[in-house]
Design goal:
By secondary structure, the protein is α+β, with helices and mostly antiparallel strands. It has one domain. Helices cover 19% and strands 35% of the residues. It has a 5-stranded mixed sheet. A two-stranded antiparallel sheet has the order 1-7. The radius of gyration is 17 Å and the shape is elongated. It starts with 5 loop residues before the first strand and ends in a 15-residue tail after the last helix. The protein binds zinc ion (ZN). The site of zinc ion has 7 residues, from loops.
């Protein structure tokens, strides 16, 4: 188990490394514009796998927690359960990634920079998982 803030993703995958951590929401500033409150924390687990013969190296990323989002109907904060489970294929360059996406439009991949900021990846993944128009779950909004 490593705690490095910056990893070489291809090596991380090849060596089957993993890290599991809690991060305070306050330490993820790029999320703050989208939140009703920056209190609390999330947990993530990042695990590399080489995939073996003929398979692509990949990172498995799991994120769990609860975020407070502003409801767009009543403007009150509500608890949004965050649960992300993703496999990110590691491409060597943009061309390789583009070829994979052509072959499989649902493919989730990224170009493996030699130095990848783990928290930046977690933040990016959370940003993509947030609803475009956050709202209280059906029947729970006081404005309804
Ligand atoms: Zn509401």
């Amino acid at each position: 188990m490593s705690e490095q803030a910056v990893i070489d993703p291809l090596r991380f995958a090849r060596d089957g490394e993993s890290q599991e951590r809690s991060v305070a929401v306050a330490n993820m500033p790029r999320l703050h514009d989208r939140l009703a409150s920056t209190e609390g924390e999330i947990r993530f687990r990042l695990a590399g796998r080489s995939g073996g013969a003929g398979k692509r190296p990949a990172l498995d990323l799991r994120i769990d927690g609860e975020l407070s989002l502003p409801c767009q109907r009543c403007l009150e904060g509500f608890a949004f359960p965050l649960s992300v489970d993703e496999t990110l294929l590691l491409a060597r360059n943009e061309a390789e990634l583009a070829a994979w996406e052509d072959a499989d439009p649902l493919c989730e991949g990224l170009v493996a920079e030699p130095q990848m900021d783990v928290l930046g990846l977690v933040e990016d993944t959370i940003l993509l998982a947030l609803p475009m128009v956050p709202r209280h779950p059906e029947g729970e909004c006081p404005v309804e």
